[in-house]
Every structure is written in C-alpha cells, then in structure tokens.
C-alpha cells in the first residue's frame, strides 16, 4: 500500500498526467500481488471501467454544448440571462447556479452537467469578464447539484444495494440540492465586491428583456425537449443527451443556418478528443479501484476509524471524514459500491433513518467529484475549458466550504432531509 | 501549426513531429466515424421503442457501449500526441528549466512502460475475448476487447514520436492544461 | 500484501452480502463458517458481495484466470462464457417449483450433465447449482395482465439476452433491453412499461414503487451457477476438498432456504409486494396459450444459436423435468 500511495503522489506531483498516474499506481499494486495470474487484470479492468452505458451522457452533452455554442443558441440564452440579472454584480454567476438546478432535474450525472456548462456558460462568462478559474469553480460547485436533485444514478445504485426506497431518496434529495444552490449563491453575493465580479450596466427596460426573451425562445425549448423526452418515456436520462444533440443539430443547421459541414466535423473531432482525455482517467482509475477493493483497503480504513468511539455524533463525524478522505482519491462509483455496505449498517446501529443516511453518504461522495487530486468534474472542466486543475481548485474553496456546511446540516439535522419524503409518504 | 506540419522535415525531431501529427489526424477521422455511428445507434435505439417502429431492435444498447469504448480509447493516442492529457503542472513549472528535459524523458518512459504493459497483456486479453460472446447475434468479444491493445499500442507509438519531436522543443511539458482553451 | 501460508479463497457475487439479504449472501456466510472451522483455518474465505470486483461475466473471467477463486453468478453472466446455459430460458418448461428444485440441482441427471459440459468447455468446476430466487414474474405500469391479449404492445424491459427478448416479442410485447442501472428510472418515466424478474429481485430493486401491477406468470426460472477455479480446487488436500464439497452443499441448501424465506417475508417478499401492487395469476388456460406462443420460437432460437449441443442439453433438461414431475 505504501508503494502504491507513494508512486501515485510522486508521479502526480512531478506532472505526469492523471490518467497515466492512476493506471501506473494500479499496476504497481497488481505487480505487488505477486502472481503472474494478476497481470492480465490491468487491461481487463481498464476495459470494464468504461463498459457502462450511462457514461455516454458525458460525450453527448459535450457535443450538444458545442453545437449550441457554434449555432448561436448559447449566445441567445446568455443574452436573456444578461438582460435579467446581468446588471447585478456577479449576475451571470448566479444564473449559472440557477441553471444548474434546472439541469439537475434533467440529468443524473454531475460530469455530464460539468461538460455541458463548461462548454457553454464558462466561455460566455469569460467573455463577460469573469476569470476562467472562477467561472469553472461556479460550474463545478453547481454540477454536484445534478446527482443530488433527482433523477440520480448514484441514488439508484445506493437504494438497490442497501434496500432503501429509491423514490424516498429522490424526494429527500430535493431540499439538500436547493440548499446547495442557495448557499453557493450566497457565496457569489459575498464575493461579488471583493472579487469585483463583472456586471453589464444599468437595469434594462422591460422591452429589452422581452426582446431577449423572444430571441432566446428557440434555445429555451431545448431543456424542455430534453425533459419532455424523459417524462414522456421517449428517452432514458442518458439517451436524453442524444435528443439534445438532435435538437441542436436541426435548429443550428436548418433554422439558424449556422452549422456548415466543416463546423460539424470540427465539433465531432473536438468531442472525441475530450472524451479520450476524460475516459482514460476513468479507465485507469478502475485499475487502481479494483486493486483497492481486492486488498480490502477501504474496509481496513473504516475499521480503524470506527474503533475510535461509539457516540452517534462522533460516528457520524467519522463517517463523513472517511467518505471525504476516500473521495479525494477514488472514483465515486467505486467508492459508493464499496463503502455503502460498510457504512450503511453502521448508520443503522446508531439509529439513523436509512433514507437520511443514504442522502448523507451520497452527498458526501458527490463532494468528492470536485475535490483534487481525483475529482471527475474537475477533470472534465479542465479538459473542456483548458483551465488548470489547480487554479480551478484555488477558486473553488469558498464554494467547497458552503457545500461542506450543507453536508453537516444534512448529517446532523435529519428533519431537513426527511421533510419531503415524509410529506410524500415514503418515510414515516 | 499547419505550416509547421507541412514544412519539409529537416531533422529527426521534425520528421517525428510530422509523423505524429499525421497519425493523430488519421485516428481523429476514425473517431469521427465512430462518434457518428454512436449517435445514430442511440437515436435508432430510442426510435425502435416507439410504437410506430415495425420490429423490435435489441442490440443498440450493447453496440453503443462498444462504440463508445473504441472511440474513447482510440482518442487517447491523439491526445498523447498533442500532450493533451491533464496533469498538475505547477511543480514541474517551478523546477529549474535544466531539469525539464530529463524529467520529461523520464515521465515519457514511464508512460511508455504503462501503455506497453497494457498493450502486452491487452493482446492476450483480446485473444481471450474470442472465447466470450457478446449478445449481439453472438459476435465474439474479441471485437470490443481488441480496442485495448490497438489503442494502447497506438499510444506507445505516439509517446515515442512525441518524445523524439519534443527533443527540440524547449517548452515541452508532460501534460497539458491549455491546449483546448483556444476560443 | 505478501501471500501467507494459508490458502485464501475469494468468493465474488453481485448480490447483497448479509446472510438474510440474498441467497448468495447466505451461501457465502454459511460456506465461510463451515470451511474455516472445518479446515482449522487452513483455508480462509473472503467474501466480495455487491459486484465489488466486477460484473458477473468479468468476475467469471477472474475465476478462470485464478485471480479470484470462486464466483456465484447469474445465467446472464454465465451465458457469455458458456452460452448453452440459455436452455434454461425455455419458457413454461417447469410445471412447478418442486420440479424446478429437483432439476436445477447438481444431484439431478441434468445437473450432472450441465456441470460436466460446462467444465469441459470452460475449465470451471461447478460446485453448486440453484435457482435465482424462484420463478420470473412480470410487472408493469399499464394494466392488470391476466391474458395473452393483455401483453399486446407492452414494452417489457429484459436483459440483453436473445431468449428473453424472444419470449416477450412472441407474446405480442416489445422487448426493451436496458442496462440495469437505468431500469428503475425507465419504469418510472415509461421508457419501458414493465419488466420481468424473480420476486426477491423485484422487491430488492424497489420496482413496487413504480409498477402497480404484477402477474405471477412463472414463465422461466433461471439458475445461479457456483463455480470454482479448478487449479485452486486441485491444490487442496483431499481432506480440504471433502470439507469444501460438504460446505458447498450445505451452503446451497441455506441459499435456497433464504430465497424461500425472502419470498415469504412480509418485509421483502410476496406479502409485502401484495400490499403495494395488484398481484394476479394466469389461469391454466391462459398459461397454455402463453406456452404455445413462446415455446416454439425459443426452441427454434436455441437450435439456431447453440446447435446440436444446445438441443442435446435442452432435451436432457426436458427429460429431467419429465422424470421429476412423475
Ligand atoms: Na439529477
Ligand atoms: Na475527489
């Protein structure tokens, strides 16, 4: 374990790309296991790590975002946001956060949200005068609302593994998701003056707002189509991303007449390049994740932690610490599958409601998506926008603090999470 | 960039650079075809479930996964060539510039070892796939599994080519953060 | 970690790990206890539930390589290594659960033939064969299904298995293969109208939350195959092998028992589902209609896909069922 950990950190610090570093650390672990029979596990997990249909949503939303940008659809939405809140200091940052909430109702994956926004809203914010790192930080902070507000793939996995009502988890995720948005908006409001966030000028007249609204109507239809596709049962949340591509393509090409073949080819190639970068990290992480599971490392760490106390409040604190620490280094799906069965029963012992415990665990792992060194949303954003991970991380910490605060509120105030599930009858 | 690529190669470095870029472009075109096929496949899958589609189609979900994996893994090599894979470069950039070249060579060798390892064991992995069946009309899993040795083999070639290319580049870094942010 | 002197047997499966949560959880718990005590600790059993080490077909790969020593895997995973397991998908082959118990069993003639054939084709030693939690039932969100006509136009999610797809299509439904992770949401939004699975799986996945109707169609019952790496087994002393053989038998009994227990329980089984869904059964007449609609199509498919060997295995299955029913 020492060898794997030191290989990982040394190579990461020296600047070896994350996708190689994760894989090399995993291979070092596999080599240490000794037998020649273990060696083929590297290519096998490398492949298996990608063999999941829901991963499709990520390249598809990247592509849809690119098409929207180049066909002028993004510009029109930004124009409307500008007219509505642009005159406020940090207005665009606020509308990014509001859009995250809206988008969260459509997708179940934070990386897909990060990809879509990194491609559309971040460049728009940069044009308005935001630093790219701040725009990325707002987007990263907002992206984890995606798997917190239903639908959420993570909650489906948790509910199935632990036998907890998925509908109950879905209902319980709504308030925490909104709370994240509210607190992050508070952070934006607080930072607006010290960071001198941009604003566009005077408050526009109703007429200007109306014109902006009319112009953006065709773009505003897109999320309606995506959501409608899901609600009418035409598409799964993953496939909905493909609907977005279809609409952006038809609209950009035939209505806006802005997508010549040359542009479409460009966009497709760029999408596949970003996919290559992000998916290498996923594939390599699954080699390392398999080794950690095989050597039962998360369980060992959990056992050591939990030998410390039997006070429920302390145990909850330790569980959160464990989730956050493991989340620094491990892919979220692997963490969930391994830690849920270890921690779930423990929360039961200390008398937590299973839905409450599930939301707490899922939310803590969601936070790991935006923490370095291994944070999928950071990787996606960095790859899509070209901003460095470390500079995104630097702008991110105020939001991280706000989201940690939400996590602690959720953990120690059960009624907050359980209000909606109780009202809808999923929890007594 | 185009001009540099089209220029007459004068040195081994320049030659490797041209070769690397041309290979990357070829792979990009392949990825483009795969991505189009992937999108069409997912559209078809949705269409096939609607009531006005005449017969059931059941292979689209599995086919989508395999197309996605082939696309993503092939694209890894193009990103190797352009040093687009994301890394944390702040320590590298802090180090004295005399150290950059040797460190870059060292890291490239490690990357070569990693992809070489995946390539070598990926060959038998793909071979084993010949004895496993997919559910798409019983096709063998050799077809999806072969993406691992093919893509990692290509990555090895690109690591070598870009290492040779960057021997004459004072500013080369092991990974990237800003190649994509052109707009 | 360096290898220690004792023999470590890692067992992986996709189900929850608690002894009362799934048949596989019960099996490994019982097996671990019997083997570790019975060999004075010379064999140590490690339990990897919930698909921690990979999906069924991937873990079977790991068993074949000797990375993991054993797995308890569903027919869907086994099919990618040993396609003829698809003969179990012959619909309405088993008249009742009693016959299914007697046939899906390593002690039956069929079970022995199955284990030998699978061993010959894959090198995997089969140490247990049991059902995956009872007969498949059909759930949906549209209407109560009690007749063949009711199936018309229903979009039913199946695994990506040609035999399952054929069953649905041949009764007038529309087979809709979806990845497991998306099934719940798909049923909720209507991407698929319904799905088919054994009762414990239906309650495990919480489908009662999004599916108001369930019909106990009893159309198929698929096996779970418990396999062990041959080299590992051959490396055990004769005494250890005796303990492992016995423990496997006892564990399979416990696994079957827990499946029946879950089916009967009012927190996870039929009584629970009955409080959340409208549960129906098929009349004998309708059952005959379903069988007549599905059997020829699936038989043809088995013949096409698995050739003479598949047909031989299917005939053995049918004659074993015949024998057990009398
Ligand atoms: Na969501
Ligand atoms: Na992280």
UniProtKB/TrEMBL annotation, chain A:
It comes from Marinobacterium lacunae. It is found in: Cell inner membrane. The complex comprises the extracytoplasmic solute receptor protein and the two transmembrane proteins. Pfam families: DctM (PF06808). GO terms for molecular function: transmembrane transporter activity. PANTHER family: SIALIC ACID TRAP TRANSPORTER PERMEASE PROTEIN SIAT-RELATED. InterPro entries: DctM, TRAP_DctM. Belongs to the TRAP transporter large permease family. This is TRAP transporter large permease protein. The chain crosses the membrane at residues 47-65, 134-158, 164-191, 212-234, 240-256, 277-294, 314-343, 355-384, 396-413. Its main location: membrane. The keyword Translocase does not apply. Keywords: Cell inner membrane, Cell membrane, Membrane, Transmembrane, Transmembrane helix, Transport. The keyword Transmembrane applies. It is a multi-pass membrane protein. Part of the tripartite ATP-independent periplasmic (TRAP) transport system. Residues 7-415 form the TRAP C4-dicarboxylate transport system permease DctM subunit domain. GO terms for cellular component: plasma membrane.
Automatic annotation (TrEMBL), chain B:
It comes from the Bacteria. It is found in: Cell inner membrane. The chain crosses the membrane at residues 30-48, 63-81, 102-122, 142-161. It is a multi-pass membrane protein. It holds the Pfam family DctQ. One of its GO terms (biological process) is C4-dicarboxylate transport. Residues 44-167 form the Tripartite ATP-independent periplasmic transporters DctQ component domain. Keywords: Cell inner membrane, Cell membrane, Membrane, Transmembrane, Transmembrane helix, Transport. GO terms for cellular component: plasma membrane. GO terms for molecular function: transmembrane transporter activity. Its main location: membrane. The keyword Isomerase does not apply. Part of the tripartite ATP-independent periplasmic (TRAP) transport system. Belongs to the TRAP transporter small permease family. The complex comprises the extracytoplasmic solute receptor protein and the two transmembrane proteins. This is TRAP transporter small permease protein.
